[in-house]
Amino acid sequence: MVVIGAGQAGLSAAYHLRRTGLAPDRDFVVLDHAPRPGGAWQFRWPSLTYGKVHGMHALPGMELTGADGRRPSSEVIGEYFTAYEERFDLRVHRPVAVSAVREGEGGRLLVETSEGAYAARALINATGTWDRPFWPRYQGQETFRGRQLHTANYPGPEEFAGLRVIVVGGGASGTQHLMEIAEVAAETTWVTRREPVYREGPFNEMAGRAAVALVEERVRRGLPPQSVVSVTGLPLTDAIRDARARGVLDRHPMFDRITPTGVVWADGGTVDADVILWATGFRAAIDHLAPLRLREPGGGIRIEGTRAARDERVHLVGYGPSASTIGANRAGRTAVAEIRHLLAREPVATA
């Protein structure tokens, strides 16, 4: 059995595999392309401190306690994941790149990687989205003489001191970037496709279930999943209230095209800029599964529980409705339970 990815979802799955009595490197193997523990968190920008992280849920079996909220989240969570892997002896192989998963011999899957090929009776895919930043395309984009970058390579606010910056994107990352950059930039402009929706009051369990259900419905129809955050709205924190009062979060509709010096709207309005920062989200990193032809006509992989509808051997965790830290934990447990039922039909195959 193979687990691809050692972020929240992959480690949760590995933990539950261990709990069922399976042994790493004998009954299953965990592969991770990142250079060190921490999942996508290790690549987060330094100014995203642990105290700014919303909704980080502990991995199963081990709480994260005593963390200093002033430290970068990449450090805090990286150290936590390191301790977790060591405590449960998960033996993650890294850095290992998975290039393709295809049909193998004897009903097994052939997982092709940078350290060789694995034949597996079942696969848990926990590759997340960080490797697939979404860059929208607009007329004239290639002519822009300034700098364009994405959340995936956002360095923190210091590099934007004295510059005119356009931030594109209405999610949590976009607002966080904007509020930071506004403190040092000469000028900021916020652009989003839709009016931002702010959420007041606590985000209780009922609201969470409703949000997950909306994402799950898309996945059941075989459509590419939206993030859970996209249907929850932005939490109306004190920092956001202050930024709105100061005009930092005055939103502009999406521009029509990009020029060498800035952007232009359909009504002729213009803004000059030195930087365009695309906080436009990510897509599921599942291209390596393409040989299995799991996608539906709508472009997504339809899943039932965590199982790919087109192949019961393949389970996706941290995908669609489970793309949150608590959702990833639950999906890891569900995937392992379903795979154990699958393997019980035949002798347990080693990875």
What's the short version?
The mean pLDDT is 90. The protein is an alpha/beta fold and 351 residues long.
- Label the structural class: alpha/beta
The overall pLDDT average reads 90
| Major beta sheet, strand line-up | 2-1-6-19-18-17
Shape annotation: globular
Uncertain residue segments: none
Taking the alpha carbons of the first and last residues, their distance comes to: 4 Å
| Number of strand elements | 19
Oligomer: single chain
| Helical content class | 10-25%
Output the radius of gyration: 21 Å
- Beta-strand fraction estimate: 15-25%
Helix/strand order: EHEHEEEEEEHEEHEHEEEEEEEEH
Number of DSSP helices? 6
Largest sheet: 6 strands, mixed
What does this structure look like?
A six-stranded mixed β-sheet has the order 2-1-6-19-18-17, covered by helices on one side. A five-stranded parallel β-sheet has the order 7-16-8-9-12, covered by helices on one side. It is globular. With about 350 residues, it is of the alpha/beta class. It contains six helices and 19 strands. The chain has helices at about 10-20, 75-85, 170-180, 205-220, 240-245, 325-345, and strands at about 1-5, 30, 100-105, 110-115, 115-120, 125, 145-150, 165-170, 185-190, 200, 235, 250, 255-260, 260-265, 270, 275-280, 305, 305-310, 310-315. The model has no long low-confidence stretch (mean pLDDT about 90).
Describe the secondary-structure layout.
Elements: E1 2-4, H1 8-19, E2 29-31, H2 73-87, E3 98-103, E4 109-113, E5 116-120, E6 123-125, E7 147-150, E8 164-168, H3 172-181, E9 187-191, E10 198-199, H4 205-220, E11 234-235, H5 238-245, E12 251-252, E13 257-259, E14 262-264, E15 270-272, E16 275-278, E17 303-304, E18 307-308, E19 311-316, H6 325-343
Parallel strand pairs: 1-2, 1-6, 6-19, 7-16, 8-9, 8-16, 9-12, 10-11
Antiparallel strand pairs: 3-4, 4-5, 13-14, 14-15, 17-18, 18-19
Helix pairs in contact: 1-6
